[in-house]
From TrEMBL:
GO terms for cellular component: cytoplasm. It comes from Hordeum vulgare subsp. vulgare. GO terms for biological process: glutathione metabolic process. Transmembrane segments: none annotated. This is glutathione transferase. The keyword Transferase applies. Keywords: Transferase. PROSITE patterns: GST_CTER, GST_NTER. It catalyses: RX + glutathione = an S-substituted glutathione + a halide anion + H(+). It comes from the Eukaryota. Residues 75-154 form the GST N-terminal domain. One of its GO terms (molecular function) is glutathione transferase activity. Its EC number is 2.5.1.18.
Length: 303
């Protein structure tokens, strides 16, 4: 399955900026390689909104023409994934946030491709991001790699301040440690309903802790990242599709508006964001239909 999402660029702030962008776009079509050189010469952190828009125009064009991807990010992007994977979803949200064109390849974990096995020989897991053919593994590493390589393109996912960056990394690690292990317990490793209930309690306790983290990190703003989606948002947001499916299995909400009201509002905002649409699954029944396939993969691995 191949899917190349090209997101709209909605960053024009004035009509003069629009005209400027139009002229630059024209230049892209007339002399794309020349423009690539100009964009590459921009210092990464001094990129302005219009350079961003120009850059995205160039990226779209370059992707289709097989030209270099500007801004230190030369080379095509290919993502190996599975549509339900929280780890894959977070990477796709970040690629969308930055309007980076990429080829998405759906893997069959029951019969992994030679490309996946060769690109991630250590864990043989998805996601794998291939950038100009070079693999980057581990979803949190991939997200940070994208943020660094395309630092001047679209919003930054990690905070600029080193202390805030450390705090964001702490909570992202907490999510994969506590929520991630409870997610595995609720869906894949529980053998009885009692074991599932125990994993649900662990998930709920972790979410209550994250309710406090959201209050602190956001400072009353919509996301962990403040006004915009940040690192902790994408890491936790990757699990939302499965939370919807688990809600159906257990007959109540994991992100319960009564217990964790901030997180419940956060979930609505995250799901509604353009970057999450079409990537964060919203069809719980479809997820549950896919669960036996995942369980069969896991069982075949254990043999
Ligand atoms: N820590 C990894 C976890 C990746 C992971 O567990 N991916 C699963 C899919 S959700 C996978 O590919 N499993 C295949 C396997 O382990 O053989 C990351 O963040 O990328």
């Amino acid at each position: 399955m191949s899917n190349v999402p090209i997101k709209g660029v909605d960053v024009y702030q004035s009509s003069s900026q629009f005209i400027y962008q139009f002229l630059i776009s024209l230049a892209v079509y007339i002399n794309p390689r020349g423009l690539a050189r100009i964009i590459r010469s921009q210092p990464e952190h001094s990129a302005t909104t219009s350079i961003n828009a120009t850059h995205v125009s160039y990226l779209r064009f370059a992707h289709h023409q097989g030209l270099p991807m500007a801004g230190g990010g030369e080379g095509e992007l290919k993502l190996l994934g599975v549509w339900t994977s929280p780890f894959v979803i977070r990477v796709r949200v970040v690629l969308n946030l930055k309007s980076l064109p990429y080829e998405y390849v759906e893997e069959n974990l029951g019969s992994k491709s030679a490309l996946l096995l060769g690109s991630n020989p250590v864990h043989q897991s998805v996601p794998v991001l291939l950038h100009g053919g070079r693999p980057v593994n581990e979803s949190q590493v991939i997200v940070q790699y994208i943020d660094e390589v395309w630092a001047g393109v679209g919003p930054s996912v990690l905070p600029a301040d080193p202390y805030e960056r450390a705090v964001a990394r702490f909570w992202a690690a907490y999510v994969d440690d506590k929520v991630g292990s409870a997610w595995t317990g609720m869906l894949f490793s529980c053998k009885t309903e009692e074991e599932r209930a125990e994993a649900v309690s662990r998930a709920v306790a972790a979410l209550e802790t994250l309710e406090g983290a959201l209050a602190e990190c956001s400072g009353g703003k919509p996301f962990f990242g403040g006004d915009a989606i940040g690192f902790v948002d994408v890491v936790l947001g990757g699990y939302l599709g499965w939370f919807g499916a688990i809600d159906k299995i257990i007959g109540r909400r994991l992100i319960d508006p009564a217990r964790t009201p901030l997180l419940a509002r956060w979930e609505e905002r995250f799901r509604a964001a353009d970057a999450a649409k079409g990537v964060v699954p919203d069809d719980a029944d479809k997820m549950l239909d896919f669960l036996p396939t995942l369980l069969a993969w896991i069982a075949s691995k254990a043999k």
